[in-house]
Each structure stands twice: as structure tokens, then as C-alpha cells.
């Protein structure tokens, strides 16, 4: 079952060593961006916790099979992404009470709290009580996009594992199976734009916004090199109320300039980088723009608002081209 989860060898090795030594933690926190597979990995960890086989999770015992089908009575999934009511203080108190009841079939009972960052402070404090003194045979698996959104007292009582996106090449291969009706170029494009995030890349094929990102990225790159600062601001305005789309588009723009660099140094042409900018910009200027975009993305992760972000980006890019 672990082999079906791509990449993340460090996280998988950490858990396997714990299982072999009989030191399965009572609480695990899986941190990673949306679409990275945190919930999928949480279900694999839960299967390992109830598994009766030798190499956990074996994937063939009755507990693993039920876990894989999502019907194991000792694995409870509480999804904070579907509704905040699922992780409010009353819901957590109910979990705390039921945790004292013995498992139905397996040796352990597992609670998966997906998107735990949506818990209120009151709910987190209620959960803290059971994490401090966990009942025997109970395991908690939390997922979140950023552990800083949880109380420090919660984080200090869990084993935290970072879930990373797999390499872009692997993401593109997986997309063949998830979305077989698309072309090789589309798989690579989606994998590149979403930096190996399988969940987001697969969802993009059903999202008209993805087509908008591809088209807008071309216009933004051209405006950055050939247009005025006003032209660039006008193109960026398409994402004024779409922070996630803005970030995805900037990543695509970064790819455009990185491909220009590759071509200027004699690298192989990629289907993502065919544009008309090569004659108007140097490799050094491209490198500066790539660095500016990366810095912009870091600042956006710190919740920089669109007006300031777009103004800063335009100013920095135009300065880099002077």
C-alpha cells in the first residue's frame, strides 16, 4: 500500500521504522499543501495501525481490505474541509468521549482529522486534552496545510511529517492514469504549473480556470518583456479576486522564462516554452525575473494582498529589464 503513494520516502521510512520497532506514535500530523495527498497518506497510516499482517500495511489482511474500501469500523474520518461543523468543539468532545470505547475489530481505533487547521481554538483545546492523555489503543492522524495554524501545544504532542509533491516527471506519469483522455503536452504542462501536485494537476483538467491560467501566462510574460508597466498590471488584473489562480499563473510564467533560458544555452526545446520572447530578453534578465517571481510567491504565502503584490511585481520586473 505504501508503494502506491508516490515520493515522500522520508515520511514512509519514518513510519515503517516505527512500525517495525513497535513504536507507532499515538498522534501524527501530516503537513502539506492542498492536493499533495495528505488525506490519502493518512488513510494508509490508518490501515497500518489496524493491520494484522507482518509488514504493515500488508494490504491483504481483512483489516487492510476494509480500510482500503473505507468501511473499517475502527477508522473514523472527520473531514474539516467539508464543513467546519465537523471539527467544532462539540464534535471534538464527541470524539474524545468515543475514544474511551474499545475498538470493534482491530487492536487500535484510529481518528483521521482532515484539514485540522479549520478547528477553532476551543476545539483544539478540547482535542489537546485527549492528546495529553490518550486512551490505550487509540491513534489520531491530523492533516493540515500549515502547522502554524494549529496551537503550539497541539504541535508539540504529535509526530509531524511533511508531505511533499512528487517529482514533476512522476506527476505527469500518474496523470496518464487519472486523466487518460489528454495529451502528453497537457500532462507535462499541468505537472509543471502545479509543481508536481497530483491532486491540483488532475483537477485542472476539469477546470476552465486552468485554460485561463495558460492563456493569461502567455500574455503576462509578453507584457513583462514588451509592454509597459501599465500593460503588465492590466494583464495581472484578471486574478484580482483569485489568489490561488494568481499564484498558479505566476508559476506558469516562471516556467516560460526558465524555458527561454534553456533555449538560449542550447537546451532542448520543451512544449511549455515555445514563445516569441527569445529575441527580446537575455538569459540574465530571465534569471532575474524568475527570482522575482519566486520571491513574490514566498510573500504571497505570508498573505500579501493582491494590490501590493501586483504593484511590487510589476515594479521589480520592469527594474530588472532596464
TrEMBL record:
Organism classification: Bacteria, Bacillati, Bacillota, Clostridia, Eubacteriales
- Biological process terms in GO annotation: DNA-templated DNA replication
Q: What InterPro entries is this protein classified in? A: AAA+_ATPase (IPR003593), DNA_Rep/Repair_Clamp_Loader (IPR050238), P-loop_NTPase (IPR027417), Sigma_54_int_dom_ATP-bd_1 (IPR025662)
The source's superkingdom equals Bacteria
What stretch or stretches form a coiled coil here? none
Q: What is this protein called?
A: DNA polymerase-3 subunit delta
What SMART domains is this protein classified in? AAA
Identify the SUPFAM superfamilies for this entry: P-loop containing nucleoside triphosphate hydrolases
What Gene3D superfamilies does the annotation carry?
Answer: P-loop containing nucleotide triphosphate hydrolases
Domain called AAA+ ATPase: residue spans = 24-169
Q: PROSITE patterns given for it?
A: SIGMA54_INTERACT_1
